[in-house]
Structure to design on (124 residues):
């Protein structure tokens, strides 16, 4: 069981998942929306974190054991630190199974990230 926070998502209206924030081109962010988006982008702004996030997101089973994703050129304690930062930003969830921790990216998080960077119909 994980105690990670996941990015807050609005209930979908008619299609897919509504992101935490509107598309950047729709309207200016509120202070709360900007804080949420900034946490997410700040976490992904580090090359090691981006590689770890990509390794989890692209893993064939949809989740990756920490033992499968630790070869990113830094020590194991540093990998753990970066995975913790990704969890705190709501980008990953985790589950402990025995001695290993398995990480996954929720599909709703990827959908929210994609919608955030999509042009709104009004701006197109």
């Amino acid at each position: 069981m994980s105690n990670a926070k996941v990015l807050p998502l609005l209930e979908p209206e008619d299609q897919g998942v509504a992101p935490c924030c509107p598309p950047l081109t729709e309207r200016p962010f509120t202070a709360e929306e900007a804080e949420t988006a900034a946490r997410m982008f700040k976490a992904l702004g580090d090359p090691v974190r981006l590689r770890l996030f990509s390794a989890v997101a692209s893993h064939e089973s949809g989740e990756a054991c920490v033992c499968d994703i630790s070869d990113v050129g830094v020590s194991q304690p540093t990998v753990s630190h970066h995975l913790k930062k990704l969890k705190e930003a709501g980008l990953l969830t985790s589950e402990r199974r025995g001695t290993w921790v398995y990480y996954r990216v929720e599909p709703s998080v990827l959908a929210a990230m994609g919608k955030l960077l999509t042009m709104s119909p009004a701006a197109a």
In short: The longest strand covers residues 93-97. Strands lie at 63-65, 93-97, 100-104.
